[in-house]
UniProtKB/TrEMBL annotation, chain A:
The keyword ATP-binding does not apply. It comes from the Bacteria. GO terms for molecular function: transmembrane transporter activity. Gene3D superfamilies: 1.10.1760.20. Keywords: Membrane, Transmembrane, Transmembrane helix. InterPro entries: ECF_substrate-spec_UCP037395 (IPR017196), ECF_trnsprt_substrate-spec (IPR024529). The chain crosses the membrane at residues 7-24, 30-47, 59-76, 88-111, 152-174, 186-211. This is ECF transporter S component. It comes from Pseudoneobacillus rhizosphaerae. The keyword Transmembrane helix applies.
TrEMBL record, chain B:
This is Energy-coupling factor transporter transmembrane protein EcfT. It is found in: Membrane. It comes from the Bacteria. Its main location: membrane. It holds the Pfam family CbiQ. InterPro entries: ABC/ECF_trnsptr_transmembrane. The chain crosses the membrane at residues 31-47, 53-74, 94-113, 125-146, 225-242, 262-280. It comes from Pseudoneobacillus rhizosphaerae.
Length: 231, 292
C-alpha cells in the first residue's frame, strides 16, 4: 500500500511538471493547462483524505458544515453580495483543522454548483473556498488568529483573494491570446470586480465581529462532546 | 434531453464532454472554432430549441463580448492595421485573437450547459465512487443535506417570524444580523441531528463492506465500442494538434486562414467527435421511423 501511494504521488508530480513544460511550449493554451494543474492539486489533498478512514460521525459532520455553507446564502438573498459561505468555511477550518477546512470548502463549492450549474468557474471556486478552509486551519494555532483582530484581517484579505482567484479563469482566457496580458490589463481586470470584493470583505468582517465567538464556541463544544477530528 | 446519448454509460458521457472541452480549447483556428460553434448551436436547437440555453444567454453574450474586446484594446501588435482610434492601433491580428478566444469560451459554456443536463449528480457520483469512495460519499451526503437544510431554514424562519424577527425588513445591518442568527440556529439544530444520521449509518453497516450504489450502470459492449471510437477520434485530433495542424499561427507572422489538405481531414475528425451526440440522436430518429 505504501509503495503504491508513493507511485501515485510521484506520478501526479511528474504530471504537474509535464503541464508546466507544456505551458512553456504552448502559450496559447494557458487556460486549459491551468485546469489540469488545479485538478492535480486537488488530487494531492483528496488522495490524502481518502487514505484516512473516517468515522461515520466525522463524515456527516463535514457534510453538514458544507451544506450549511452552501445553503447559508438563502436568508441573505435580498442583500446583494452578502453571503456567509466564506465565514462558515473559515470557522470550520479554524476549529477542525486544515484538511477538514479544505474538504468543506471544496465540497460546498462542488455541491452548490451541482445544483446551480457547473461551468469553467467550478474548479476555481472549489480551489478558492478550499484554500479559505485550508489557510484558516493552518493558522489556527497562531497567536494572531486567536485574536479578533487577526481574524478580521484574515477575512478582509480573503474577501479580495477570493475575487481574484475567481477572476483567474477569464483572465487566463484573455492571456492565451498573444500579448494582451500585461500589467495594465491585469490591473484593469482585477479592478473590475473590486466593488464586489469589497462587499465580500465587509460582510466577512461583520460576520466575524458578531458571530465568530459564538460559532467557535458551538463547534468546539460539539467537537469535544463527541470526540471528533481529534487526530 | 432524455435521448439515446443520455442513456450511455456515465464514463462515455463524461469522456465526450472532457474531450469536447479539450478540443474546443486547443484548436485555436477560426474555421475549427466556427465549425464547433455551429455544431453546438445545432445541437442545442435540436435538443430543446435553446430552452436551457436561454437563462445563460446574457452571461454568455457579455463574457464573449468582453473577451473579444479586451484583446484589441490592450494589444497593438500586428502588421495589418484595421483602423486607428486616438493613436491606438487596432490590428487584424489582435481582433482575430480576441474573436477566437471569445468563440472558444462561448463553446465551452455551451458544452457545460448540456453537461449539466446529461451528467446528473447520480452519474457523477457513480464515477467518483470508483476512484474516490470517501470523497464521493461526502459529496453525496452534502447533496442530500442541501434540500433538507433548506426546509429547516423555512421552519426556522416561520418560528422566528412569529416572534417578530424577520430578515425581510429593517435596516440592512439588522437584517444581516438576523439572517446569521437563522443560520446559527440551523447549525446547532443540524449538528445534533447529524449524530443521529451517523449512528443510523453505522447501524446499517457503513464502513463494514464495499459500498453499493443506488443506480448501477453496466458498461456493455456498445458503451465500450463507443468509448473506443471517441478515444480514436480524439487521439487523431491531438496528434494533429501536436504536429501543428488545426491551429492558426498569428505571431510573429500570420499564416493564411485557409486549410492545407491534411487539415481538412483533421477538421472532419474534429467535427465527427463534436457531432457525436447529434449523430446518435439522428440515428435514433431514423431507426424509429424505419421501425414504424
Amino acid at each position: 500500500m505504501q509503495i503504491r501511494s508513493k507511485i501515485v504521488y510521484a506520478g501526479l508530480f511528474i504530471f504537474m511538471v509535464g503541464l508546466l513544460w507544456l505551458s512553456l511550449r504552448y502559450s496559447d493554451n494557458y487556460l486549459l493547462l491551468s485546469f489540469g494543474f488545479v485538478l492535480i492539486s486537488f488530487l494531492f489533498i483528496i488522495l490524502r483524505f481518502e487514505k484516512r478512514k473516517m468515522e461515520a460521525r466525522e463524515l456527516v459532520l463535514l457534510a453538514v458544515l458544507a451544506a450549511i455553507a452552501a445553503v447559508g446564502r438563502i436568508p441573505f438573498a435580498s442583500i446583494p453580495s452578502v453571503q456567509p459561505t466564506t465565514f462558515v468555511i473559515m470557522i470550520s477550518g479554524l476549529v477542525f483543522g486544515a484538511e477538514s477546512g479544505f474538504m468543506i470548502g471544496v465540497i460546498a463549492a462542488l455541491a452548490s454548483n451541482m445544483i446551480l450549474g457547473q461551468g469553467p468557474w467550478t474548479p476555481w471556486q472549489m480551489m478558492a473556498w478550499g484554500l479559505v478552509g485550508l489557510t484558516a486551519g493552518l493558522f489556527n494555532q497562531s497567536r494572531l488568529m486567536s485574536t479578533l483582530k487577526g481574524k478580521i484581517i484574515f477575512g478582509i484579505v480573503w474577501g479580495f483573494l477570493f475575487g481574484w482567484i475567481m477572476n483567474l479563469w477569464s483572465l487566463l482566457a484573455i492571456a492565451q491570446s498573444g500579448e494582451a496580458l500585461n500589467i495594465k490589463s491585469i490591473y484593469t481586470y482585477l479592478a473590475s470586480s473590486v466593488l464586489f470584493d469589497f462587499f465580500h470583505s465587509i460582510s466577512n468582517v461583520i460576520f466575524l465581529v458578531l458571530f465568530s465567538k459564538s460559532w467557535i464556541k458551538i463547534l468546539t463544544r460539539f467537537k469535544r462532546k463527541y470526540g471528533l477530528m481529534e487526530k | 434531453m432524455k435521448g439515446r446519448f443520455y442513456a450511455f454509460h456515465p464514463i462515455v458521457n463524461f469522456s465526450y464532454y472532457m474531450g469536447a472541452i479539450l478540443l474546443v480549447m486547443i484548436n485555436q483556428h477560426p474555421i475549427f472554432l466556427f465549425v464547433a460553434f455551429s455544431i453546438l448551436i445545432t445541437f442545442h436547437f435540436f435538443n430543446d430549441c435553446f430552452n436551457h440555453m436561454k437563462q445563460w444567454l446574457f452571461f454568455m453574450f457579455t463574457t464573449g463580448i468582453l473577451i473579444f474586446l479586451i484583446n484589441p484594446l490592450f494589444n497593438e501588435r500586428g502588421r495589418h492595421v484595421l483602423f486607428e482610434v486616438m493613436g491606438h492601433r487596432v490590428t487584424l491580428e489582435a481582433s482575430l485573437y480576441g474573436g477566437m478566444s471569445a468563440l472558444s469560451i462561448i463553446s465551452v459554456l455551451m458544452l457545460f450547459i448540456s453537461y449539466n443536463e446529461v451528467m446528473t449528480p447520480n452519474k457523477l457520483l457513480f464515477l467518483f465512487s470508483k476512484f474516490l469512495p470517501q470523497f464521493a460519499i461526502l459529496l453525496m451526503l452534502t447533496l442530500r443535506f442541501i434540500p433538507l437544510m433548506r426546509r429547516r431554514l423555512d421552519e426556522i424562519a416561520a418560528v422566528q417570524v412569529s416572534k417578530g424577527i424577520s430578515v425581510k425588513q429593517g435596516p440592512w445591518k439588522e437584517r444581516i444580523k438576523k439572517g446569521m442568527l437563522y443560520v446559527q440556529i440551523l447549525l446547532t439544530y443540524s449538528l445534533e441531528e447529524a449524530i443521529q444520521t451517523a449512528d443510523s449509518m453505522k447501524a446499517r453497516g457503513y464502513g463494514q463492506k464495499k459500498r453499493s450504489t443506488y443506480e448501477y450502470f453496466r458498461l456493455n459492449k456498445k458503451d465500450s465500442l463507443t468509448l473506443l471510437f471517441l478515444v480514436i477520434l480524439l487521439s487523431i485530433c491531438l496528434y494533429g494538434r501536436f504536429t501543428g495542424l488545426g491551429t492558426l499561427t498569428i505571431y510573429p507572422l500570420m499564416e493564411s486562414i485557409g486549410l492545407v489538405p491534411v487539415e481538412y481531414f483533421i477538421l472532419l475528425v474534429y467535427a465527427l467527435f463534436l457531432c457525436f451526440p447529434l449523430l446518435v440522436e439522428i440515428g435514433e430518429v431514423i431507426r424509429w421511423r424505419l421501425l414504424n
